[in-house]
Design brief:
The protein has 412 residues and is α/β, with parallel strands linked by helices. Among the domains are: 38 residues; 202 residues, Rossmann fold (3-Layer(aba) Sandwich). Helices cover 38% and strands 15% of the residues. It is built from 16 helices and 13 strands. It starts with a strand and ends with a helix. 50% of the residues are buried.
Length: 412
């Protein structure tokens, strides 16, 4: 497939091999688009394992390029029958992106982005991050033999995510401020041609890798669901998902598209606020706060495309509270055995809320995209954890706490 790079604002085109993150003419975001609509040989996809590079013809990487991969994609699509029953739904699935190599969906975009960095001759890469991006970039940079710099908001990153960046050898830079301050810093640094290659979701190659989640859901279900629910922070993921869905339709691989429901935390919800107020712009949240650290972002880069994805799919952007998020995290883990981080659990919280309101109907097949593994943010679990039961080291005490007092009496 042939690809072009175009500005989403003014339509100006840019070379595919140019180190550019925004349009040189108007400053708008760049998007990689298919230059033709010829259908790829899908039979070739069937001979490859499920994963990002199964769909190589749809990715803007030269076919001769050496792919920087850790085996990303191919994550499970788990039908959650018990939880669906609890919520009054017939079909509920969780696409568990926590099964990726570094434990989050970021690996999908990073394999393509770092491969492109190597193709451009970069010797170093950088990002701003609330955690998952830094973990993923550090791993893929190590795989490629590149230096890695990650800029994080001081004191606002989960320890599990920071540990990953550290162990993979990244240089950690703490910013006195929040994620939005860190993001502004790396974007400003990227203006210098000698700076490390920037791999936040402002980079269109990141979006290309992330869009493959749409292809996988279609392949795994054999169709597209009625609704897809996903967390929204910097909004690269909903942008990528909608792009992948549109490509499936353009290629004749899907005849109908699902509604997209993006979820933000109540106190970090600039896109949801804009959607509800029917604004065509976003007012940043100055001090976003939520237990869902992965979506604690007040000034999202991809807000315009996120609003478009919600509107064009006949969907919307919803909010949930921190309490709802933590309760949903526990419900999914205890009912289905799937442990996801708080940002991911926002999708379950949202489905629970909308199913109760009957905004999601019982017969609508729904897929929740869980973006990261629960081990990424173990601190959050302590907020709802029940203390362990302590007993004496005797058979009687153990049997009693197991609820078998008559057996305990018989043993005494």
């Amino acid at each position: 497939m042939n690809h072009t790079v175009e500005c989403i604002e003014c339509g100006a085109t840019h070379p595919l091999n140019e180190r550019a993150y925004v349009c040189s003419k108007c400053g708008g975001l760049l998007e990689i688009r298919l230059a033709d609509r010829s259908e790829p040989d899908i039979r070739r996809w069937g001979t490859r394992p499920l994963g990002v590079w199964r769909y190589r013809e749809m990715l803007p990487i030269d076919e001769k390029a050496e792919v920087i991969s850790l085996g990303e994609g191919g994550t499970g699509l788990h039908e959650c029958r018990r939880l669906a029953h609890d919520l009054g739904l017939k079909r509920l699935h969780v696409k568990n992106e926590g099964e990726n190599p570094t434990g989050s969906f970021k690996d999908r975009g990073m394999t393509v982005g770092v491969t492109q960095a190597v193709e451009l001759g970069a010797d170093s890469v950088m990002c701003a991050s609330t955690g998952n991006t830094s973990a993923s970039l550090a791993a893929y940079a190590a795989r490629a033999g590149l230096k890695c710099f990650v800029m994080i908001p001081a004191g606002k990153i989960a320890a599990g995510k920071l540990a990953q960046a550290v162990v993979h050898g990244a240089s950690i830079i703490e910013v006195d401020g929040n994620f939005d301050d860190a993001m502004r810093a790396v974007v400003e640094a990227a203006r210098n041609a000698r700076s490390p290659y920037l791999l936040n979701s402002i980079n269109p190659f990141r979006i290309e890798g992330q869009k493959t989640v749409a292809y996988e859901i279609n392949d795994q279900l054999g169709r597209l669901p009625d609704i897809i629910v996903l967390p929204v922070g910097n909004a690269g993921n909903i942008t990528a998902l909608w792009k992948g869905l549109l490509e499936l339709r353009a290629l004749g691989l899907a005849d109908r598209l699902p509604r997209l429901i993006g979820v933000q935390a109540e106190r970090a919800s600039p896109i949801a606020n804009a959607f509800r107020s029917r604004l065509d712009y976003v007012e940043p949240v100055a001090n976003p706060e939520t237990v869902a650290t992965a979506i604690r972002i007040g000034s999202p880069v991809n807000w315009k495309r996120a609003l478009a994805a919600a509107k064009d799919s006949s969907g919307f952007i919803e909010t949930v509270t921190d309490r709802e998020i933590l309760e949903a995290q526990e419900a999914l883990a205890s009912r289905e055995g799937i442990f996801i981080e708080p940002a991911s659990a926002s999708t379950i919280a949202c489905v629970r809320k909308l199913a109760h309101e009957r905004t999601i109907k019982a017969d609508e097949e729904t897929v929740c995209i869980a973006t990261g593994h629960g081990l990424k943010d173990q601190e959050a679990v302590s907020l709802l954890a029940r203390p362990p039961v302590r007993v004496r080291a005797s058979r009687e005490s153990v049997m009693a706490v197991l609820g078998i007092p008559e057996l305990a009496a018989a043993l005494s």
